[in-house]
Amino acid sequence: MSKLTLRAKSSEGEPYNVDFIVDNGRLSVYCNCKAGIFGQLCKHKTELIGGDESRLFDLSENDKMAQVTAMMAKVPEVQSLAARIAQSEKLIRREQAKIKTLKKQFGALLHEGIPIVENTQ
Ligand SMILES: [Zn+2]
To answer: What pLDDT does 23 receive?
Structure first.
């Protein structure tokens, strides 16, 4: 078994430990944040799996991060799931931008007044 631990930045100041464990040819990733201890996917895991060095608590761990990145190249399922999540998040951002524009138009219309169409019958 081999274990690599990276410390991820947290909003509370104290870092979270993200553990990358290889055992019997299988990779597992754990984080000790509130979501992570329940086995949920947290941003610390996704950011470090995605190779975002800016999320490291201590930049001197970037050599360990390179090892993690090299490990990720050997797990195609992780890469394909990460790509699908990124694609869906991109779609959501695009739809959110549409909603924002529509709400702006709608708000302006309600503020300026909407012409009433009289029933001619
Ligand atoms: Zn976490």
So the answer is: 97
End-to-end CA gap in the chain? 81
Q: How many angstroms does the Cα of residue 44 sit away from the middle of ligand 1? A: 4
CB–CB of 18/5 below 8 Å? yes
Q: Residue 32 is encoded by which pair of tokens?
A: 């000790």
Q: Which amino acid is at 6?
A: L
Residue carrying the six token digits 């138009």? 105
Q: Which residues surround ligand 1, an ion (CB under 5 A)?
A: 16, 31, 33, 36, 42, 44
Q: Residue 118 Cα, ligand 1 centroid: separation in angstroms?
A: 58
Quote the pTM value: 0.75
What is the per-residue pLDDT for 86?
Answer: 86
* Helices marked H in 1-121: 43-49, 62-72, 76-112
